[in-house]
Structure formats: structure tokens, C-alpha cells
Amino acid sequence: MSLRHEYLFELKEDDEACRKAQQTGAFYLFHDLDPLLQASGHRYLVPRLSRAVTILIRTSTTSSGFNLSSRGENRPAIIELRLEGLLGKFGQDSQRIEDSVLIGCSNQQEAWFALDLGLKSASSARASLPRSEMGAELGGSFIKLRQAVFQLNSADSSLLFTDYKNSRPSTCCLAEGSLEPPSPQYWGYRRLHPEMAPVVITLVSDGARCLLARQSSFPKGLYSALAGFCDIAFAGESVEEAVQREVAEEVGLEVENIQYSASQHWPFPNSSLMIACHATVKPGHTEIQVNLKELEAAAWFGLDEVATALRRKGSFAQQQGEASPLLLPPKLAIAHHMIKKWVEKQSGSSLAA
């Protein structure tokens, strides 16, 4: 076990060690599960707050009188204010920090915590804090993660994807929907049996082409691999059975040669484990029958077209503004890496990371 994992295990098991880590750790603010973000060009940045030293804001402007020192557009600036001071401005004391939840740590053993300012506590003094006012004080806003996901870099998205609702808080923190501190057995159960739904995501190929599809909720021009939940509760499906059923239901194709590729935690719609697989269609059976209840469109795409889409430069938001018939998922999504792996296998050459 690495030192990082040893330290994280200690924090999960020892409330006193967890409280001590709060003194020097980094805090990420949320409001009703929506993260505090700051716009920076075509991207969103995630501000880090510390409890007793400074607040690091990665933009150069803020709407409040916090003496933010400008260092140029989109460059770091430091606010000389403690997290306790920010909470005090809104009638809260440092006890509110006890509501924070451990979500991870760095290799340098800096603990990371999520603090949701929208959750109400048993005490009226620790009620939900004003959403827009808190965001304005920090030069940002609380934004739906699903709305912002394609405008985050990989490191920030990975951090925010952490399902902190299922992470272990200190014993001072409240169980979800409860006004009483949870028992140790409750949190032990949550750690050993996380609430996460398995989802199969499959890239289907006919040998020369790959099949990509889109839903009406996707950004304009975006196509991705087919995905759907495993029906474990009622049908007791295996991963392979789920792949076969989902592909048949969504595009009317039978697949074979199913191969596991990788996995990824995905926070939507409510914390999923994405299980990536590659599969091929049966020879001579490539006619797509799109299930319009599930998809808006689906089509076969050739190697050159897909490879060209993968090589496009710029952020996802910038690519959306360009005229192109095909937009692929960003690098933070496992679908991007599945498509990249298929292109490399077909072309016999590696693409830049």
C-alpha cells in the first residue's frame, strides 16, 4: 500500500486524525451538491480554500471587498482570508467546517474535503447559506456539475466526480437526510457497500467502421459509444449479457467478441461505474435500427473521419464552435479513450495523448 493510501485509510478510520487534517487541508465548496466554479475563458476552474491560512482563487477578479490582488488575466491571486472568516461573514462559526466530508488526499498527504453550504444541520445556526451571495463573494458561482463537466480539466473533473455523499465524514457530520449523527456501523456499511450503479459502455465495430450514437441531450454534433445500465436487480445480468441487450435495444444489432477494456467512475445520473467494452457485429449484419425512445441518431463512422475528430485541437467548448459533422467526447470521458484505442488498433499507430 502506498503512503498516500495508508494516510487516506488512517483519515477514514480515525476521527481525530481527520479533524487534525482539516487544519491544513484543502476545501472545495458545494451548494446542494453543485460545485463552486469560476469561469476562465472556455473553461471552468475549481477554487481551493484552506481553513486557517489563505484562500487561493485562480482568477483575478471578485465581486466583494476581499482585497484580491490582481496578477493578470487568468493567473492566480491570493485572498488573505480564512475559511472561518468567510463563514463568519454569513453568521457561521468554525463548527460549520465539521460538516465537511473527506474526499481524498494528495501524494504529499494534503487532505481534501468537500463542504456543502446548502445542507441544513440540526442547529438553526448552521442552516443553508445563501447560494448566490456566497458565490459572488468568491468571484464564482455554484454550477450544476453536469452542465460544466466538459469545461473542466481532467484533474478537476476527477476530483469533483468523487461521490462525496458516500465518503466518510467525521462523527460530527450528519447522515444524508438525517438529523442525528450516523453510527459507526452505518459508515462502515457505506464504505463496504457503496451506492453505485454498473453501466456498460460499448464501442461496436464492423471491422472497418465504429458505431457512434447521440442522445437529444448531447451538445450539438457530439457522438459517443452506446451505454446503458446493467439489469442486475431483476434480470441478474452479467456484463456480457448487458452489452448484448443494450446494443440490441438501442440499434437493433447482435454483437459478439465482447472484450472488457477499462472502467471509470461517472457521477451521472447518480454515481455510476462505467464498464467499457469493445464488441463486433456479426458478419453481414450491419443495418442500424435506431430506437428513437433511447437515441436521437446512430451511424457508422470510418477510420479517417474518427481519427480526424480525435486530432482536433482546443477545449471541448472551442471545438463546439467549429463547423464539423463529428464531435467526440472529451478526454475526461472513458468513451474518448475507447474510441482512441479503436483508431490506434485500426491504423496500427499511436495517437498523441
Automatic annotation (TrEMBL):
Superkingdom as given in the UniProt entry: Eukaryota
EC top class, as a word: hydrolase
Residue intervals passing through the bilayer: none
Annotated ranges, domain Nudix hydrolase: 194-324
Catalytic activity: NADPH + H2O = reduced beta-nicotinamide D-ribonucleotide + adenosine 2',5'-bisphosphate + 2 H(+); NADH + H2O = reduced beta-nicotinamide D-ribonucleotide + AMP + 2 H(+); NAD(+) + H2O = beta-nicotinamide D-ribonucleotide + AMP + 2 H(+)
Keyword list, A-Z: Hydrolase, Magnesium, Metal-binding, NAD
Annotated InterPro entries: NADH_PPase-like_N, NudC-like_C, NUDIX_hydrolase-like_dom_sf, NUDIX_hydrolase_dom
EC number: 3.6.1.22
Cofactor: Mg(2+)
Annotated protein name in UniProt: NAD(+) diphosphatase
Species this chain originates from: Apodemus speciosus
